[in-house]
Amino acid sequence: MELRSLGSTGVQVSPLGLGTVKFGRNQGVKYPRPFALPSDQDALTLLDLAWDLGINLLDTAPAYGESEERLGRLLRQCRQDWVIVTKVGEEFHDGVSVFDFSAAATRTSVERSLRRLGVETLDVVLIHSSGDDLRILEQEEVLPALRRLQQAGLIRVVGMSSKTVGGGLRAVECCDVVMMTYNLSQREELPVIRTAHAAGKGVLIKKGLLSGHLDSLTNADPVRASMELIYAEPGVSSVVVGTLNPGHLRANVAAVEEVLSQPAVSDPVGTTAG
């Protein structure tokens, strides 16, 4: 897969990224079927396969249970030049999410991520929104704290994993990159993608395959249809999809490569939002 620019950050990412929530957490998740956490060997095999298929982007977070810590340990065994996205603001303990957007919590989280991942600089750090995007960006200490850490050289790129259209648009104004939900069933945030593209900001897509709930769709090939919808927008830098299944990973990469090899289509599934 040909790498894409993450906005104007100078970071180059694969059009498909690997989400790693399933590396570290199987409680309180919204996937359609239960799953066991993978062994270190199975996770390492999946990482090696992802790299061989052209993926260079990994997505993790402190809220993903053991994901960050396991990634740091595993990546010491496969020292490819990964781009790692992590987050601040949300922790997950005893089956419950806890949010803290203070400056102290932000710095503590970043320093812990640096230790866990075994790096001197974090590639991308996103604010892990609780849903109150505008208040977090405009009233909490987290964004100024991240900017100070960025200026100190501990972070390359700062952004937000947003949950609202208004929050996404505000994140485009004050961050380097925004992560948002966009899929065949949820297209409300399309204006955020287009505004970010016009502003030269990076766009990461989450839940592009409906967190595995594709059975609810009537499309003959819902993975292909999902990728057609998403990549019809030139502002999209990468789609983050989590899986533990090597076959699914290969199929997702094949769908992305096939879609990106086709001429651009303005409305591939018949109803462009926006």
Describe this structure in words.
- It is a single chain.
- By secondary structure, this protein is an alpha/beta fold.
- It has a single domain (4-259), classed as NADP-dependent oxidoreductase domain (TIM Barrel).
- The chain is 38% helix and 20% strand.
- It contains ten helices and twelve strands.
- The chain has helices spanning 21-24, 40-52, 67-75, 103-117, 133-139, 142-151, 165-174, 190-199, 222-231, 246-260, and strands at residues 4-5, 12-13, 16-19, 57-59, 83-88, 90-93, 96-99, 122-128, 155-161, 177-181, 202-206, 238-242.
- An eight-stranded parallel beta barrel has the order 3-4-5-8-9-10-11-12, surrounded by five helices.
- β10 (177-181), α8 (190-199) and β11 form a beta-alpha-beta unit.
- α3 runs parallel beside α4 and α4 packs across α6 (142-151).
- It is globular and about 50 Å long.
- The chain starts with a strand and ends in a 14-residue tail after the last helix.
- The relative contact order is 0.15.
- Mean pLDDT is 91; it is low at 265-274.
Counting DSSP H or I runs of 4 or more residues, the number of helices is 10
What's the level 1 CATH class? Alpha Beta
- Total strands: the figure is 12
CATH hierarchy: architecture: Alpha-Beta Barrel
Radius of gyration: 17 Å
Brief summary:
The chain is built from ten helices and twelve strands. The protein is an alpha/beta fold and 274 residues long. The two termini are 29 Å apart.
Element layout with pairings:
Elements: E1 4-5, E2 12-13, E3 16-19, H1 21-24, H2 40-52, E4 57-59, H3 67-75, E5 83-88, E6 90-93, E7 96-99, H4 103-117, E8 122-128, H5 133-139, H6 142-151, E9 155-161, H7 165-174, E10 177-181, H8 190-199, E11 202-206, H9 222-231, E12 238-242, H10 246-260
Parallel strand pairs: 3-4, 3-12, 4-5, 5-8, 8-9, 9-10, 10-11, 11-12
Antiparallel strand pairs: 1-2, 6-7
Helix pairs in contact: 3-4, 4-6, 7-8, 9-10
